[in-house]
Structure to design on (527 residues):
């Protein structure tokens, strides 16, 4: 992590106007990655402004408005002004972007004439620009005399030959096209149309190999042909084994609807919340999404064992390079994860403690994390950092009573920061049996049929509420393996009995044990 202090003035000093424009523009794109709907407002305001309404001298260049066109056409003082809004302590990014949108509807004649080529010094004393890890910067005293930044990559047809060029274009295209400038503008727009926001490559470190983001069609990534998955997603390719990317389970069975929703949330910077009974495969689902896409995953169990120092960080005694003992702040799970392109899996979030939920709130909004423990240090999220939560409930407590001892009613403030709720159901039994067959290829058909029936009846009891302890495909697979080993020696019936005794009976309470015995008796007497 670099902690370099970036000073806007030094950006201007060290770069030509075009490069400085690009650095500030990239900073804004990165920081406002999670606010696409706010950009829609800005684009709307810009589209309705004088700038695009024809009379304005710059309006031609803004004929079609988009986020990137607006940013491309902003010069350094304009960009600095926006960054200044973004870094105003009294404003959230949300509010800063709204203020910016207002610039387009502002009646100030200066603004309308000059915007977005502001050539007045923005009211700036201090600009805080931080790159990679967050750092403070100094004042820009003077934003006024940069050279006008050219629209990068734009072509301007020389006015004296525009008419002639248009005549030729019309002749060359049989009248289909007649405005060279409009055509060139369109070319520039299309060229710039980002696949998504261009993501940086990941530098190799001691444990992590070099990684590059690659856009791919989700159907190809998951080997599933389905219209819901026919869209581009971000994936990562690594030069070697990355220990933070989960291992692929080729037998994993994806539910296409759920997969779509989670991928959509990742692509759109939304937080998803997976809800479902124990053993429906919520945690494995996210791990497999990461395994197939190459995303790094950091999993944290949000049950009560996790304390704020684990999560945020704490002062720790360390030995420095010269062998001296020093106290230094050691980042916790959250700031570590935030600075990487990764999925932070908040497992069992409905058991989270209120103080931890509180720390997470700004981060769930895509905002930087201010760590009071470390003198107010600010950690900015990586632009490809995502949060996914899993839970047995949707945070509103558990009326069924199944999870009541572990689950707390979470505050709306926490839940509202998740937008994509995904209901994960148990695999259907025939799919589950496919997994059992893979785990235990020599299992006899009779034994497989008995296990299938047992699981079917048991699950029904669980969903009805007559059985309190859930069983997952993890149980089913173990039962299958155990039986396939034993059935040749003691027969199918006894093997199944023993397997259920070993894997289920001994872990359930007395009531459930009676139910299990009942199902077992019925099954083994039938055959
Ligand atoms: N769709 C699936 N395909 C393959 N295995 C699954 C699937 N769903 C669940 N499993 C298996 O079920 C077990 C429980 O999954 P887990 O992710 O721990 O559930 P949860 O987090 O919902 O409690 C795991 O062994 C997992 O491999
Ligand atoms: Mg889980």
């Amino acid at each position: 992590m670099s902690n370099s202090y970036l000073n806007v003035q030094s950006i201007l000093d060290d770069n030509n106007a075009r490069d400085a424009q690009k650095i500030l523009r990239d900073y804004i794109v990165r920081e406002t990655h999670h606010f696409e709907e706010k950009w829609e407002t800005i684009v709307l305001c810009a589209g309705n402004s004088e700038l695009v309404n024809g009379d304005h001298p710059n309006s031609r260049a803004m004929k079609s408005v988009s986020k990137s066109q607006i940013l491309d056409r902003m010069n350094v003082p304009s960009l600095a002004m926006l960054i200044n809004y973004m870094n105003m302590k009294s404003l959230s990014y949300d509010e800063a972007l709204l203020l910016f949108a207002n610039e387009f509807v502002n009646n100030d004649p200066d603004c309308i004439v000059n915007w977005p080529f502001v050539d007045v010094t923005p009211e700036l004393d201090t600009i805080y620009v931080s790159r990679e890890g967050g750092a403070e910067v100094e004042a820009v005293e003077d934003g006024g005399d940069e050279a006008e930044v050219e629209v990068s990559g734009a072509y301007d047809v020389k006015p004296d030959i525009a008419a002639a060029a248009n005549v030729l274009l019309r002749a060359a295209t049989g009248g289909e096209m007649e405005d060279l400038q409009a055509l060139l503008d369109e070319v520039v727009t299309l060229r710039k149309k980002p696949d998504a926001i261009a993501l940086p490559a990941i530098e190799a470190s001691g444990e992590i190999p070099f990684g590059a983001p690659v856009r791919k069609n989700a159907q190809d990534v998951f080997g599933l042909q389905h219209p819901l998955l026919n869209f581009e997603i971000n994936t990562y390719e690594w030069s070697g084994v990355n220990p933070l990317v989960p291992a692929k389970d080729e037998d994993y069975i994806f539910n296409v609807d759920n997969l779509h929703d989670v991928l959509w949330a990742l692509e759109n910077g939304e937080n998803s919340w997976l809800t479902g009974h124990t053993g429906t495969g919520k945690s494995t689902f996210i791990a497999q999404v990461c395994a197939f896409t190459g995303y790094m995953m950091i999993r944290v169990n949000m049950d009560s064992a996790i304390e704020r120092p684990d999560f945020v960080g704490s002062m720790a005694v360390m030995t420095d390079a010269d062998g001296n003992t020093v106290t230094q702040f050691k980042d916790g799970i959250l700031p570590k994860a935030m600075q990487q392109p990764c999925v932070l899996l908040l497992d069992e979030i409905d058991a989270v403690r209120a103080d931890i939920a509180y720390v997470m709130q700004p981060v769930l909004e895509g905002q930087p994390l201010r760590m009071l423990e470390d003198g107010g240090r600010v950690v900015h999220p990586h632009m490809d950092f995502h949060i996914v939560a899993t839970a047995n409930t949707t945070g509103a407590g558990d009326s069924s009573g199944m999870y009541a001892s572990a689950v707390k009613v979470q505050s709306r403030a926490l839940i509202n920061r998740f937008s994509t709720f995904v209901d994960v159901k148990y695999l259907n039994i025939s799919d589950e049996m496919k997994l059992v067959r893979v785990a235990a290829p020599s299992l006899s058909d009779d034994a497989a049929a008995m296990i299938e029936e047992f699981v079917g009846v048991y699950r029904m009891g669980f969903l009805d509420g007559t059985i309190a302890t859930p069983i997952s495909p993890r149980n089913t697979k173990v039962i299958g393996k155990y039986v396939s080993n034993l059935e040749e020696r003691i027969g199918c019936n006894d093997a199944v009995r023993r397997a259920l005794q070993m894997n289920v009976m001994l872990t359930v309470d007395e009531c459930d044990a009676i139910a299990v015995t009942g199902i077992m008796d019925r099954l083994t007497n039938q055959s």
Remarks:
- The pocket of magnesium ion (ligand 2) is lined by residues 282-283, 347, 390 (CB under 6 Å).
- DSSP finds 21 helices and 13 strands in the chain.
- The chain has four domains: 5-152, 155-194, 245-423, 429-526.
